[in-house]
Amino acid sequence: MKLSDYSNFPADIPVIAEDEIFLYPFMIAPLFLSDESNIKAATKAIEEGSLVIVCPTKPSHEGERVFEALYDAGVVGSIMRKVALPDGRVKVLFQGLARAKTFGKVSENPLIANVDVIKAQSVNALKIDAILEILREKVRKLAAVSNYFPPDLLRTIEENHDYNRIIDLICSTVKLKKEQAYTLFVETNTEKRFLDLIEHIIDEIEANKLQKEIRSKVHTHIEKVNKEYFLKEQLKQIQKELGSDTSRDEELEEYRKKLEAKKDKMNADAYKEVHKQIERFSRMHPDSSDASMTQTYLDWALEIPFGEESKKKLKISEVEAQLDKDHFSLEKPKERIAEFFAVKELMELRGIKSASGAIICFNGPPGVGKTSLANSIAEALKRPLIRIALGGLEDVNELRGHRRTYVGAMPGRIVQGLIDAKKMNPVVVLDEIDKVAKTGRGDPTAALLEILDPEQNNEFRDYYLNFNIDLSKVIFIATANDIGNIPAPLRDRMEFIAISSYTPQEKLEIASRYLLPQELKKHGLKKSEVTISRAALKELIHSYTREAGVRNLRRRISNMSRKVAREILEHPEITKVSLSVKNLKDYFDKTVFEIEKTTKVPVVGVVNGLAWTAVGGDVLKIESIRIKGKGTMQLTGSLGEVMKESAIIAYSVVKTLIDTKKLKIDDINIPLTPKEIEEKIEVDSSEVYKRYDLHIHVPDGATPKDGPSAGIALVSAISSILSGRKVRSEVAMTGEVSLSGDVLPIGGLREKLIAAHKADMSKVLIPMKNYERDLEDIPSEVRESLKIVGVTRIEEVLSHILV
Known about the structure:
Keywords: ATP-binding, Cytoplasm, Hydrolase, Nucleotide-binding, Protease, Serine protease, Stress response. It is found in: Cytoplasm. InterPro entries: AAA+_ATPase, ATPase_AAA_core, Lon_bac, Lon_bac/euk-typ, Lon_lid, Lon_proteolytic, Lon_Prtase, Lon_prtase_N. ATP binds at residues 364-371. By secondary structure, this protein is α/β, with parallel strands linked by helices. The protein has five domains: 3-117, Archaeosine Trna-guanine Transglycosylase, Chain: A, domain 4; 247-301, no CATH class; 316-498, 3-Layer(aba) Sandwich (Rossmann fold); 504-587, Helicase, Ruva Protein, domain 3, CATH 1.10.8; 603-801, Ribosomal Protein S5, domain 2. 44% of the residues lie in helices and 18% in strands. The chain contains 28 helices and 26 strands. The strands form seven sheets. The protein has a seven-stranded mixed sheet with strand order 19-20-18-17-22-25-26. A five-stranded mixed barrel has the order 1-3-4-5-6. Strands 8-9-12-7-13 form a five-stranded parallel sheet, with helices on both faces. β4 and β5 (90-107) form a beta hairpin. α10 (316-326) packs across α12 (370-381). The termini are far apart.
């Protein structure tokens, strides 16, 4: 089909807008028409048997179908076939015939324009042939570095002599931008078209060379990576066959990554040591025992949370609020704790680095809340809590870490605690620091000196790690039952906060406010399902527990909760269980031996002493009898050396009192011989301790007793039995006596006075120094129920005690 088969140009013909491709005269191409304007133009051309012009849209106007959005040039051709597609589009087969240019719009819908064919200018054949040869050479070069030109197209370019046809062929093959393609398309000067195209071909050659070079490098790299991967996989299989594994290389890389991540937060010695061990590990045979030991070391060392700290600032108000929330009473200990942390907060606020300071140590009987106070402190500070039980610790390496030469070596408990806490500033509770034992395997208390000393613990060296750890930001809290068992140098570094026994009233409040609700919740019981009267709680405290703290009381309430839970399950009709004094025995086991209440009946030779025990205070009855003899004294009741010596001193003091007539002995109490009776011989009062043997007993006999506080009670018992005067049974006493008769101060006054309060004593005699110094620490309910009298001399004691 030729252009001459149609009407002459210029002519008014329909216009089809094309967004995607730039068409050329020699092309037969399918066009997919979706918009109404293009479909109408194609339909009009088919119906009228006319040509159409396909004009590309300008890059910034793609999708628009107005005359101004189109280039003013395109390909004139005919529509060979038209097919309607199911999706509403129309497919036409277009055959290009000639380049043409539009000169104005004729109508809008369908778009019709006035079109004329672009005619090429005459050319110098020799010159153009020379330029054409250059173009063909450049095309061959481009074909060598790209896949633009298939062989048959190259052959067509080589053999064709239609200049503009060659240019159009090459332009349709090379990737040109729309603007570049349009410029070459509308140019009428064939020589200029050739020269411009040669420039584009040269640029394309350079671009394709660069792309080929990059592709070659990438391909080489990929080949290298694939080769390495293939070889590594082969090596893995070979090593597996030999019994080894390359997962070790991955482990080494992981260790190095972990070390580099922690490098900025570690000290130089730590980094150097761990790095050295990683390099040693990389050179070891994986099956050697040293490799296993070194790998274990690296696992421990790289788990230490270097630089990780709880960021919450210390606030004394939050510490106080948490202590009040978790603990009833304990005003003095809570005040001391608040003062301790107030100093730390003030130093933080003023930017003063805390270089020294004492370590808190809670001391008191079991079950009074020493560890739970530490829990409250950790909760208030929002720091992890680490508990290290020191009871029975004998090996110093448990704290310092074992040297790596030993089988099963591991870091010390302090470092393990830091790893568990994942922070470098946790709260560490050193439980039962008074029970650390010194053996042939070192002295753990000496290691504790370094751990707890603020001047030294910023460079605490763990033997296993072999580098220093900074413990200066750790808050250490120790607990102890008896501070006398803590070595003096260690005791010197501690701030002791005494937590003494609870009074029955305090126990009642703790049980109702804390223990009962907590235990009911633990056992799945609702508050509405269990009620216990205050009288029943009082009876439970008095008759079913005997302790300074509330641990056994919690255990008793837990036992009761289990029984109630079983009762509710077995009897679904029961919706509420009420406990009173009457049915208390149904839910609790047998009662314990509690402090016996006083009978308030005066008795000869029986005195109420007060004692401190590990479970609180106790009333110690001291019994004495006299037997005719020669002045000897026998002591029973598992007494320790100190109490035996107190008894000997007491006997000497009483003898002195009798000799100096300060203790009156009636004649009726002195045993006389028949001759003395017959002759009415007057006998000296000192004969009373020469003619009687004394037997002093402290019940119960199976319980060991010792301590320097029974002196005045022993003096009172001996004075009573020798003088025959009765002792007031509602009066209790505590205090040591000197050989000259002075009353000396004692310890454990709070526990002893609480025991006297439980035994319904009306009066208690205590040393005057204790009266002046320690009375403010005694609970108000105890002070109000007892008449507390301070005494300085043994004569004062006897005036209060003897009837």
